[in-house]
Amino acid sequence: VVSVPVFVFFKDNVASLGCIEGNSMRPTLNPDPGAHRDRVLLNKFSAVCNDYQRGDVCMLRNPNDNREWICKRLIAVGGDQVRTRSEDLVTVPRGYGWLEGDNDEERAGSMVDSNTFGPVPLALIRASVWGVVWP
User: Fold this and answer.
1) Where are the extended beta strands (E) located within 8-109?
2) Catalytic residue among 3, 11, 16, 24
3) Catalytic one among 44, 72, 114, 128?
4) 129: which strand partners?
5) How far apart are CA 94 and CA 85, in angstroms?
């Protein structure tokens, strides 16, 4: 009886598994096109503590569609300046982050990241990716 609340607390606040779909984080995640979807271990405690570092791969709600989860790399945090794909210089506001996908081939095309929707409130980040557990 006690184990169910403990499990739910752990899953919601400490760690859980996730499945990465799409190409935007290739080659870091899903390196083989069409072969599989990477299963990852998610560090949810980083979101509880607001402990994010530049370079972290993060899971967050899509700012344009709150029903959709996206996975991107945190490039910059509040106070940092970033050069966008269109070569503009943007200062990231305090409490926000700049997130981009790793896939260089998709960057010029249809990738949805901060180049599309701008800086993202850090509150939308729900976890950082600790690592791939399968395959």
Assistant:
1) 15-19, 39-43, 57-62, 65-77, 81-83, 89-91, 96-100
2) 24
3) 72
4) 42
5) 22
Q: Which residues pair with 97 in a beta bridge?
A: 77, 120
Residue 20 tokens, joined: 């990465």
Q: H or E element: which one contains 130?
A: strand 125-134
46 counts as catalytic: no
Q: Running along the chain, 135 residues long, what does each successive block of 10 average in pLDDT?
A: 86 93 90 84 92 94 92 97 95 97 78 93 95 91
Nearest to 84 by CA among 54, 36, 116, 57: 116
Q: Does residue 24 have an active-site annotation?
A: yes
Structure tokens at 52: 């994010």
